[in-house]
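seq/struct pair 1
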Amino acid sequence: MRLTGVRWRADALACLILVALWGGFFWRFLTPVAADQLSLAEGDFSGQFVAFGAYQAARLWAGEVPLWNPYNNGGLPFLADTQAAVFYPPRLLTIALTGLSREWTYQTLEVEMMTHVLLTSLLMYGLVRRLTAGARGSAAGALTGAIVWAYGGFMTGYPPLQLALLEAVSWAPLILLGVHEATTQERLRPRWLILSGLALGLSVLAGHPQTNWFLGWLAIAFLAWRIYQRRWRWTVFLSGATLVVTLAAALAAVQLLPAAEYLQHTTRITYGFEAKRNGFPVQDVIQVIFPRVLSVWSPLYAGIVGAILATVGLWQATRDRVFWGGAALLALLLSFGGNAALYGLLVNLWPGLSLFRGQERAAMVIALALSVLAGQGACALFSLDAARAGAIRATLRRGLLLLGLLTGFVTIVAFVLWLGEATGFNAEKLGALAFSALVAWLAAVAVLWLLRRPGDRLRQAAVVALLVFDLFTIAGDNLLAEPIPPGERLKQPDVLAVALDDPAVPPQRVDGQRGVLANYGTLWQIPDIRGISPLWLDGPYTVIGQEFPNPLAWELFAVRYVFTDWQELPVPSTIVASGADAYGPVNAHRLTDPRPFALLMADVWRVEGDANARAVLAEPGLNPRRTLVLDVSGGVALPEGLRATGSATVTDFAPEAITIMVRDNPDPAVLSLALPHYPGWQAFVDGQPAPLLRAYGALSAVILPGGATEVRLVYDPWTFKVGAAISIVAWGGLALGSLWLVGVRLRRKDGGR
């Protein structure tokens, strides 16, 4: 559809307003004045995403693909951890732009986060603009929907800290826009579904599978709804859905295949219903009107003005209202998890639902649906003629009066309880209730004033301004930020220098129970056996777990330094440095006799399966330095005459390639390695492939023939190579197809002159 000059001006003005609002919301993150600066509170954002991004950037700047990460959890497949987002295009752009300075900072990732908020607000504007195309209030309605989406309780709460979630959900409006545009003509338009597939693929590469699951099903459901409305054949739906899902999977195959393999070897695969059933308490539904009362975040809050407009969107005969209302209701019921019946009924019936925990993340769909409905509701109100406005004004007056009385009554009751010093009622919660009451009454005045002259731009602006006031006030507290300049974040504790300055090869492993913390082993490149990644390899987790002190883990994972506030450890050690971290004093203990990374052994206890290996490790008389617990369930045959008279020394260590020299060992032996046993690692003994065996139910071992001199370990997973090949073909095909389409359009344009 050709855009008129008036429409172009309306769209340009709306986009400028969104940019201005974005700058106003985040100005304290962007200002160069240190005294005014805010930064996101340390937690998941810093402990995972800043750390992962720093490692990813350092490896890519060096021209290396970060397949393996030796710096947390005893070692794990970095690319396969979806939240690392190794090949997410915007992350690659961020790394490229910072490549000249070779400096990865806290603010670098904050800027990436903020850019996605602006991006998704503009995409939501485009979606609602197209959903309301032709209506007089379309531009203002689309602006309203974009504001509700970008600055509502969901997007300004947990997602900025859980960056993978925010970046994955940012593409939601574009996914749905492609589906909408594909179904607006008499025949399905595949090129728009290709756009949906591209957006879904970008979402998958951003690295939050649960969000991708919700968005994939939402896109399929929206496509089914649109095709049902047009009474097209079911084969059209099937082909369209297949195109979207297949393209997205192909574009993200470089991430999906390694991630699917990784999942099979993590603790997550063993989670049962009780571990996955968590969701909102049912009472959290009051967040729709009363934010900041029951929890730190208020993801169900779309603003009181936004809720009113969404209700209007459902009430008036707005396009697709049944779909959006149904999506919001279904997502709300799912978000309760095991606190309501629906999740338990569907968990084993709905493909993929049983893979994820934290069912409250369905709030993403609720927020998305409410934003669309609010935009459509605003458009409906702004497009009313005088007669229609008068007809609905009385009904709205009653509803708004009831809302004002309800919020006022609740505030008064809370005030009385607060005066009586009732438990649970404090000034902060009372202030939140009072704010809701204030906005409810202001909204009543603004909406009823609007309905006297719905087409008046000033009155429309007043409603939108009240919405901004409402959302920005709540979002200011919802967003966990502190008045700390980002440059002052993540100061490396001095006590860690003893490990960082140790010249040994490989870098000496540590137990960073204190001092290192979170995933900062990855940030500072200290090989830590701990970490906060939600995806632990099952074997290492069983050995390391959360227990402290853990001498068995120190032994099997070749730990040399232990950072703790303890003055003495249960094994011989010496305090070689003292300092402090964010929690207080820290001592650096150097173990007197740490196990080497590679150790020749001859005494082998043969078991079948990890369960038996763990049972043997629990034997009180077992000395794991002397006895190797080896899994022989695959038919492993040990040579006769095992003897360990020589030595094994690591001479070269890189994340995906390790070289070990063996000296003075003329007889067969078994080389025990403090390396997690994981598919993709390959062993070569004197240049010849050798089986990599599983030891202690978690680690690796190699059988050495007599006289062996060199062992080479290489991490070269087939999942990455096959996934990369598929993605290269998909991205290349998409690029060539886009160029061909542009060429066709140019030829048509030239032919029409």
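seq/struct pair 2
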Amino acid sequence: MIDKMTRYSFILLSGEKERFLKDLQDLGLMDITRSSKSVDEESSELMERADVLKVAADYLSGLEVPQGTQAAEVESATPAEDLSELRMKLDEDKAALSAARSRLETLKAWGGGLSAASLKKIEEINSALRSEGSQPLTIRYYKTPEKNFKPEWASLVPLEVISKDSRNVYFVTVSDDPAYTFPIAPVQEPEGDLETCEAEISAREAAVKAAWAKIAGLKKYVPEIEKMRRDVLSELDLYLAGTESESAAEDRLCVFTGFAPTEDDGKIAARLDTMDIYWTSRAAQTEDMPPIKLKNNKFVSMFQVLTDMYGRPAYDGFDPTIWISIFFMLFFAFCMGDMGYGLVLVVIGLLLKKTSAGKLAPLVVTLGAATTLLGFLFHTFFSVDFYNMLKDTPARYLMIPSDEIKAATGYDANMILALVIGIIHLCIAICIKTAMQTKNKGIKNSLGTWGWTLLIVGGVIVAALAIFEVLPPAIVKPVVIALGVVSAIGIFFLNDIHANPLVNFGSGLWATYNTVTGLLGDVLSYLRLYALGLAGSMLGYAFNQLGMMVLGDGGIGFNWIFFILLVVLGHTLNIAMCILGAFVHPLRLNFLEFFKNSEYDGSGRNYNPLKAK
């Protein structure tokens, strides 16, 4: 449910602003209006600082250094900044090391390349030739597949083979004609020599190792970095709250607006009375756009994360979390539909408690328990139907007799159940819409909606009573006629009591077309529950059959190993696919079909009190 909020207004001297906000932060209950906070230079710097600290903490928390690295003893007053510099230096050294190794491979292919002494000698010869006015020597480097190399090329220009490998020939040509031609194009001259390159690689490897050691040494600062980030976030929260104040009396006064839960009025009033400020309070109104705090029991609160995925309700709206908790759990179990899969989910949920995703553990366990229960009703365990095994026991009364229902109706029991659940889900949505419109607009302005509710929900109830013979056949017809007449009056003539009757009739016809076509499509959407459950069951059954084919007569041998591997891997894959479908499609049925027919408005903003992080 939506917690009632109280709107507070504060007036204080400008010089008291920071102390006042710090007191509110210590109180931890006041949401200072932040609807139009701006990002200026100071807040931008604080956000950037918090981001740097977060990146540093996340990086060091998940750090995996190369095997054999010994953490260095590092003393740092600014560990996040030092980490950033070390990572930049590490990236530079790793890039240089990769380039040096690439050069080394090239030099090895060229037989080590020309030594520094050879290069110096060539330069001395060229210097002498230039001093004599002669053309200096031009050296070109060539690489070609061995099958393409022709020894007669040596007659064109002086040529020297430097090295060969299994595929290529590496050679150079020397000429005093800088424009001489050759049958193939030259390649780039190899840089340096083996000795220099190997020395650079050794130096870079040492630098990389030293950088990793220093980074590993910074890991001990993770708690301190996280605390620094919390402090920065608290400072940012105070600053942003301060920017929401209005200046008055020539900037000598500040005016704040805040919201807090009504249930905390006494505690807040006692604290505010100790502050040197002027304050007033009143019940928050919808036009105040107060923040939304949801208050539910422990079970419903587990599903609040799903509500927040869509958006919190408006202040004058309704909290859909209780309905999501019921129907999402039911839809999820319906899509999974297997007792064995439910037990696997329960185990996964219990294991999650010991991980960083521990907050989701209760939800996973709950969904697994619901799947286990519904899987028992559907008498399916890892895609094996156990109904016949228990049909002569009292347990048969707790299971759905699928074959009997199909024989009596001609349709699968699960398909009928999916449609029935969908109709109930939509009827609840329509009733909620009617109740909220009546609450917010009054009964006179909701007569059209009441007409549709009587027609749809009333019609469903009458049909159910007639099917189960609770309502005598002789009474059904008059009741249906009465419902139709009363509903038609509301739909076609009273949908807007302030409008012309002809306009009402026209809008009623248009609403009828939209409702009939839309509602039919919405009901059929619930068949996805049956389809997903059937697909998962059939795929699991196929893996079981493949396993039995591999097992053969069941004799002792490797066939048992392959049987177990096939069945375990197959069902693991099927469980993963079923979980994905069982999450997405029930969410869709709640977010689209239910929210549309209940006219849910997810425009509310989260209650975010000013408090120390």
